[in-house]
Design goal:
Elements lengths: L3 H34 L7 H13 L7 E5 L1 H4 L4 H5 L4 E5 L5 H6 L1 H4 L7 E5 L2 H5 L9 H18 L5 E4 L11 H16 L4 E4 L26 H18 L1 H11 L3
Parallel strand pairs: 1-2, 1-3, 3-4, 4-5
Helix pairs in contact: 8-9, 10-11
């Protein structure tokens, strides 16, 4: 049998231990919230390391097109099949904002010397994630200009395809701000022949101007397979037009003379 003193010691230790665990959890959560609130890019460090490790294990083609951006890129699981025979790499991560994507260009774009970059972000800048500050359309434009500036400082002729910020069911109240940002992004793209604005938002809207219900996952934010098929139908012809050698090489392999 356990004596009374032993029971007292156990009753003291257990609450103390539980209190310490609770404090640790609160501390960790507080740090996470603080990183989100100040848009700290290092919150994605672990994810970026995984992408780097995957690239080392399966080195991309030297002529690859890198898709980079937020979770709308990350969740594009059919990307390789959708753009074959064009070699592509998926470097989307989390609920990233534009400044965070820019932060990691040194590690997710530059080492691979791609022939082009497809960019999608801004959704989380305006829609906000957790406690992060909502950005204005003008702030989204400035952030994207900084991204392009960093890429073009390293690769002056690099083509950049910027996908329009998409509408979504859960963020429909923010759609007017997203539309305004898209207008600014398109105008900026017109000013630089190295940048092409690709409207992947319009096909996601119903006749009444509201987001279609059949192209989103249950969360009302991310695209489902049908939604990605819509994006592919818009973007694939553009990339194959601009990089025809891959289509020609594919045809030679399939239909040799």
């Amino acid at each position: 049998m356990v004596g009374g003193n032993s029971l007292n010691r156990i009753s003291v230790v257990l609450p103390a231990t539980g209190g310490i665990i609770a404090l640790v959890i609160i501390f960790v959560l507080a740090r996470m919230v603080a990183k989100v609130a100040r848009n700290d890019p290092t919150r994605w460090e672990r994810t970026v390391r995984k992408l780097e490790r995957k690239a080392r294990q399966h080195p991309p083609s030297p002529d690859t097109v890198i898709f980079i951006g937020s979770s709308s890129i990350r969740l594009w699981k059919s990307l390789t099949e959708d753009f074959a025979p064009l070699p592509v790499v998926n470097h989307g991560f989390g609920g990233a904002q534009i400044l965070q994507v820019t932060f990691y260009t040194d590690r997710l774009i530059f080492p691979f010397k791609p022939q082009a970059v497809v960019f999608y972000a801004g959704d989380n800048d305006i829609g906000s994630v957790w406690f992060a500050k909502k950005k204005t359309p003008e702030e989204v434009l400035v952030a994207f200009q900084q991204f392009c500036g960093k890429v073009h400082d390293r690769y002056p002729e690099m083509p950049i395809y910027v996908l329009s910020i998409k509408p979504s069911i859960r963020r429909r109240k923010r759609w007017p701000q997203m539309q305004a940002a898209n207008t600014l992004l398109e105008e900026f793209a017109w000013s630089d022949e190295r940048i092409q604005f690709v409207d992947v938002a319009a096909p996601l809207l119903a006749a009444n101007g509201q987001p279609r219900s059949d192209v989103f996952r249950r969360d009302g934010v991310h695209l489902n397979a049908k939604g990605y098929a819509v994006w592919t139908a818009v973007l694939r012809p553009i990339l194959l037009r601009d990089f025809p050698k891959f289509t020609e090489q594919h045809e030679e392999k399939c239909f040799p003379e």
